[in-house]
Structure formats: structure tokens, C-alpha cells
Write a structure and sequence with these properties.
The chain has 271 residues and is an alpha+beta fold. The protein has helices spanning 113-117, 119-130, 134-152, 156-171, 178-184, 189-200, 204-222, 227-233, 239-250, 263-268; strands at residues 2-6, 16-23, 30-34, 41-45, 50-55, 58-61, 65-68, 75-80, 84-90, 110-112.
């Protein structure tokens, strides 16, 4: 597996966490599970490989240009063939700047971006397949995103405020009272909830739960702390609270988690 991240240009850096390129080196069938995370993504399939995701117990082939909504529960995926993919990973609050739809409608879904944005995305996909060098492909992505940013820049102020709130929640695990957070910005709790749904697709409470889960996942992967210490460091009330939330988002308990068993989901989506 070849994976590489690319830093966005200066103007897009506040809204795009990274671009990434992913290429598999064999055509073996691979099953994996994607855990909940805080980001939406766009993924362009530029090779001959096929990806499938499980929905209601049935496997469905993902579209050539995938829009990943917020993942709030474990999602099984399957890769078949040799894959070549190019992705855009947004920050938790910034995908709304480039889309017209209500983001919560995409939760736990993989939508076809060609159906949502039409001809410009179809043209971009074809041009990306024609380009052979990564820098050239990234330049095409940047041109496309900048054109969308120009159309939507009137929303930047609200999105920037939500981003600032999210960063404060990330750096201060004890800051989990929606009322206190709203008061700091002189807005009501109800309005804060509305902003989060509009610009992240989830409520502040659900976002914070997923954030804590992702933080605990990283600490378990590093294997340097006890579960009690992880629970404390991530802002859980106690170890039982940590285990209960972890099981909700992963489908099993922390003691059952083996990082080596989930290599693709942790790299590709919502990490």
C-alpha cells in the first residue's frame, strides 16, 4: 500500500485538512471496518479497483466519485482489485462551504458527487484520470475547490466560528458543556446546535463523543496508557463510560481492538 498526504495551498488550508493519494499493490480482496470520525471526504477512484460498503446487510458498490458523510457507527467496506485513489479530507466544519445540501443527510452514507454537482465533477474526474503526475492532479483539485469557494464565501464567517469552537473542544476535553460554549460566543445553545448541524452534520454532543472516541483510538494504538488513564485523558467520567462509548462507535470493547486488523479504514477515512 502506498499512501501520501499533500498539504493544500494557502487559501484552501483553513478548510482542507489534506489531500491524499492511495494505491494498493495487489489485487487481493480486503475486508475492513471504518470507525466513526469527524471529517467528510471526497474520494476519486482513478483505477480499476472496486470498493463496496455494507448497508442494511447488503454490499453496495461505491460510485467512482465518492462523497463520504460523517460516519457515526462502524461501517464495513470491501476492496477488490488494484486501487488508485485521490482524496480530499475536509475539516469537521468545512465541507459545507463547498456543498449546497444539508450535511446531516449524508451521515453514514457514501453519495455520488457526480449526481450532486453534475458536469463539473464529471469533467474533473476525467481530467484527473488523464493526468499521470500527482502534482498535476492536486492542481486540478485546487482549481475546482477554489471555484466552489468563490461561490460560497459569504458563509465563511459562520464556518470559521464553528471551526474555532471545534478547536477549543479538541484542546480542552473538559469544555463539553454546550451552554458554557454558547455563552462564550454570546449565542444561545439552540443556535449553536443549529450551526453544528448545518456546518458539521451532527450535534455538538455527538461531535464531542466522536472526538473523544477518536482520541482514545489513537492512545490505544500508541499502547502507552492504561484504559483508566485513557478515560481520564479523553474526558470520560470513568472507565465504564469510556468502554460504553467505545463499544458504541467501534462495535466491540477497547480490550478487543487490534490496530493491525484495521489498516485501511484508519488510513483512508475519518482518521
Amino acid at each position: 500500500m502506498k499512501y501520501k498526504e499533500i498539504i493544500p495551498g494557502e487559501r484552501l488550508r483553513p478548510f482542507i485538512k489534506c489531500y491524499y493519494s492511495f494505491e494498493s499493490e495487489s489485487d487481493i480482496e480486503l475486508d475492513d471496518t471504518v470507525f466513526p470520525g469527524g471529517h467528510m471526504e471526497i474520494i476519486f477512484n482513478l483505477g480499476d479497483g472496486i470498493w463496496r460498503s455494507a448497508s442494511d446487510g447488503c454490499w453496495q458498490t461505491t460510485p467512482p466519485v465518492e462523497l463520504w458523510g460523517k460516519i457515526t457507527q462502524p461501517l464495513a467496506i470491501r476492496s477488490i482489485g488494484i486501487n488508485k485513489m485521490l482524496g480530499i479530507k475536509f475539516y469537521a466544519h468545512s465541507a459545507a462551504l463547498f456543498l449546497n445540501e444539508e450535511l446531516s443527510g449524508f451521515n453514514d452514507q457514501i453519495a455520488d458527487l457526480r449526481d450532486l454537482l453534475g458536469h463539473p465533477v464529471r469533467t474533473l474526474h476525467e481530467r484527473l484520470k488523464e493526468k499521470q503526475d500527482l502534482n498535476g492532479r492536486v492542481a486540478l483539485l485546487e482549481d475546482f475547490l477554489l471555484s466552489r469557494l468563490t461561490e460560497k464565501d459569504r458563509r465563511v464567517r459562520s464556518i470559521t466560528m464553528v471551526g474555532k469552537i471545534i478547536r477549543e473542544m479538541q484542546h480542552n476535553p473538559d469544555l463539553n458543556s454546550i451552554r458554557i460554549i454558547a455563552g462564550q460566543y454570546n449565542i444561545s445553545s439552540r443556535y449553536l446546535g443549529k450551526l453544528f448541524l448545518q456546518y458539521t452534520g451532527v450535534t455538538p454532543k455527538l461531535y464531542d463523543k466522536i472526538r473523544r472516541f477518536q482520541q482514545s483510538l489513537r492512545l490505544i494504538t500508541e499502547n502507552q496508557s492504561s484504559f483508566t488513564a485513557i478515560a481520564y485523558n479523553c474526558g470520560y467520567f470513568d472507565q465504564s463510560h469510556f468502554i460504553r462509548d467505545f463499544k458504541q462507535f467501534a462495535g466491540f470493547t477497547p480490550s478487543s481492538y487490534s490496530p493491525a486488523s484495521y489498516p485501511v479504514g484508519q488510513v483512508l477515512v475519518n482518521s
